[in-house]
Amino acid sequence: MPGKVTLVLGGIRSGKSAFAEELAGRAGQRMLYVATGQALDDEMAERIRKHRERRSAHWRTLEEPLALPESLDRYFESNGDIGVILLDSVDVWVSNLMLAREKEETDATESIALESLDSTLTLCRQKVMHAVLVSSEVGMSPVSPNQLGRQFQDLLGTVNQRAGAQADEVFLVVAGIPVKIKPS
Asked: Which residues are the active-site residues?
């Protein structure tokens, strides 16, 4: 039986990561936390530290800012049985991809992001019982005043739509309150 995929969306500081961690922890399985953030400045290092502190000690961690399916595949080959994966976060991963490929055409980056997402979801369905993905919802944000911001919003919106279409369930977290969107 293929593994279940859950997408948890929400605004910045909505409580989406905490909810996703609780949801993933309910399974009582061996858990892998896939972290996409990079400590490129002091503020981000502090955010990462807080996320680490919030996780219990029995979480295994894979830090991968770019090559999600490749890193997960290698991880499964060398570590075997994982019951639950929490990927936090899709939006930071998309940002990392955009910055790493900023000299490429937007369509090429979108193609790579969608292919990588599809491969990651396929791998998760094959290898784990439950995958929980966290992402920021950009559909309710104001349109960015600069081109890079608009490209990010467009790409993340497209990636979120693809993830939502493939997910078995989708939650939107608003003010710390999860609302189930799919299935209705």
From this structure: 51
